[in-house]
Design a protein that fits this description.
By secondary structure, the protein is mainly α. It contains 15 helices and no strands. The N and C termini lie far apart (74 Å).
C-alpha cells in the first residue's frame, strides 16, 4: 500500500469521525442552541401561565371564549415541550438518531399541532364575530358543551389525517424518499403535488377565511359606530314606553257628559295639576322627555363602551392575522421549493430558519391573546409576583358598566 493511499484513507476516516462529533463551528454551537433554548423556555412558560390561569381563576373559566385560548395554549405548549427539543437535538448533531417509527410519530404530531393552532385561531375569530353579531343570543348559542364538541372533533380529525399520511403514504404510493437513518421528514414532502395540496389546506384557505372573518368584524364595527345598523333595541324599548306613558298622562280626565254638566251648572273647576313629589303622581310630559333623554344617554354610553371593546378586539385580531402571515408564509414558500429540488435550491440554513420562525408563532400567541385579556393579565402578574406594583382590579372596577347589562361580564373578560 502506498503512503499516498494510506494517508488518503487516514484522512477520510478522520473526517468521518469528525462529522460524527459535529459539523458546526464553535460559534454556531454557542449561539444557535442558546437561541432555540430561549424560544422553548419563553413558549413553555407563557403558555403554561395561560393554562394555569384558566385552572386558578373562576372568572377566566366562566367565559366560554377563553376555552379557545386555553386550547391554543395547550397546542403551543406541546409544540415547545415535545417538538422543539428533538428538533434542536437533530440540528446540533446534524443527524437523526431516533429511527423511522419515532420520526413518523414526531412528524405527524408536529404537523397536527401546527394545523390545530391554525384551526383554533380561526375559531377565535369566528367566536368574536358571533359575539358581535348575535348579541343577547350569544350566551345561549356558544356553550361550553358546543365548544368542547367542536374542539374534540378538530383534534380527532387532524390527528387521524396526519398519522395516516405519516405511516400510509409510502405503502400506498410506493415512494420511499427519506433516509430515516440520518434524516426525518414527512415522506410526502418530496412530492410537489402533495405539498401544494397540503399547504393550500393548511395555510392558503385558512388565511383567506381569517381575512374574511376579520373583515366582517371591521365592517360591522364601522357600521355600528356610524349608526347604520340601527339604534339599540334597549333605546327603542325605552322610547316606546315613554310615549305610552306620555299618552296616558295627557289623556282627558273627564268624560263628555261631565264636561256638559259642568258648563250648564257654571261651576267648572280648573284642570287638576299634578303636584311634584306627590305619592302615586303621574309624570308631566317634560319629565317624561327628561327621563327618555337620560335613559337614552345611558344606553348610548353602553353602546360606546360596547363598540370600544370590539374595536380593541378587532385590532388584536388584525395583529393576529399579521403575525400568522409573517410566521407561515416563509415556511410555505420554502416547503414548496424543497418539494421541487430539495436541498439543491433550498439551503439547510434557510430550511431551519423558516421552520424556527413557524414555531415562533407559538411563542407570540400568549402575548397576542392572553396578555390583552384583563383577567389573564392579572394572573400573569400574580405568577410573576408583580401584582403588588399594579392594581388591575381598581382599573377593572372603574371600567365596569351598568350591572343590568347582560353582556357586561362577557365583554369585560373577552378582550382578545
Amino acid at each position: 500500500m502506498s503512503l499516498e493511499s494510506t494517508t488518503d484513507g487516514f484522512s477520510s476516516s478522520d473526517l468521518h469521525d469528525d462529522s460524527d462529533v459535529s459539523t458546526h463551528s464553535k460559534a454556531w454551537l454557542a449561539t444557535v442552541p442558546l437561541i432555540l433554548s430561549v424560544i422553548m423556555f419563553v413558549t413553555m412558560v407563557g403558555n403554561f401561565f395561560v393554562v394555569l390561569a384558566f385552572i386558578r381563576d373562576v372568572k377566566v373559566r366562566a367565559n366560554v371564549a377563553n376555552v379557545f385560548i386555553v386550547n391554543l395554549a395547550v397546542v403551543d405548549f406541546l409544540t415547545a415541550s415535545v417538538i422543539l427539543p428533538f428538533n434542536t437535538d437533530w440540528l446540533v448533531k446534524d443527524v437523526w438518531l431516533y429511527g423511522e417509527v419515532f420520526c413518523k410519530i414526531w412528524c405527524a404530531l408536529d404537523n397536527a399541532l401546527l394545523n390545530m393552532a391554525v384551526i383554533t385561531i380561526l375559531l377565535i375569530s369566528w367566536d368574536r364575530l358571533c359575539l358581535l353579531t348575535m348579541g343577547m343570543k350569544y350566551r345561549s348559542f356558544q356553550t361550553k358543551r358546543r365548544v368542547g364538541m367542536i374542539l374534540f372533533a378538530c383534534w380527532t380529525v387532524t390527528l387521524a389525517v396526519y398519522f395516516f399520511l405519516a405511516f400510509a403514504w409510502s405503502p400506498i404510493t410506493g415512494e420511499y424518499n427519506i433516509d430515516f437513518d440520518t434524516n426525518c421528514e414527512m415522506e410526502y414532502s418530496a412530492n410537489l403535488t402533495a405539498t401544494v395540496i397540503i399547504n393550500t389546506l393548511n395555510f392558503i384557505i385558512p388565511f383567506f377565511f381569517l381575512v374574511a372573518l376579520n373583515s366582517a368584524i371591521f365592517v360591522n364595527i364601522r357600521r355600528r359606530s356610524k349608526g347604520s345598523v340601527g339604534p339599540s333595541p334597549q333605546v327603542n324599548n325605552v322610547y316606546d314606553k315613554s310615549l305610552v306613558q306620555h299618552k296616558d298622562n295627557t289623556a282627558p280626565s273627564r268624560s263628555n257628559g261631565s264636561k256638559k254638566a259642568c258648563r250648564e251648572s257654571g261651576r267648572c273647576e280648573p284642570h287638576p295639576v299634578a303636584i311634584p313629589d306627590a305619592p302615586g303622581r303621574k309624570e308631566t310630559p317634560s319629565e317624561d322627555a327628561q327621563n327618555v333623554n337620560r335613559t337614552t344617554g345611558d344606553t348610548t354610553t353602553k353602546e360606546r363602551r360596547f363598540l370600544a371593546r370590539h374595536q380593541k378586539a378587532a385590532f388584536v385580531l388584525a395583529v393576529l392575522v399579521g403575525c400568522f402571515l409573517a410566521c407561515w408564509l416563509p415556511y410555505q414558500i420554502t416547503s414548496a421549493m424543497f418539494a421541487v429540488c430539495a436541498y439543491d435550491c433550498v439551503s439547510e440554513l434557510a430550511w431551519e430558519v423558516t421552520n424556527t420562525i413557524l414555531w415562533c408563532n407559538a411563542t407570540i400567541n400568549p402575548f397576542i391573546y392572553a396578555a390583552t385579556n384583563v383577567h389573564f393579565r392579572r394572573n400573569f402578574r400574580h405568577f410573576l409576583l408583580l401584582d403588588r406594583w399594579t392594581c388591575d382590579g381598581c382599573r377593572l372596577k372603574r371600567r365596569s358598566v351598568n350591572k343590568d347589562d347582560p353582556l357586561r361580564d362577557t365583554m369585560n373578560e373577552t378582550a382578545y
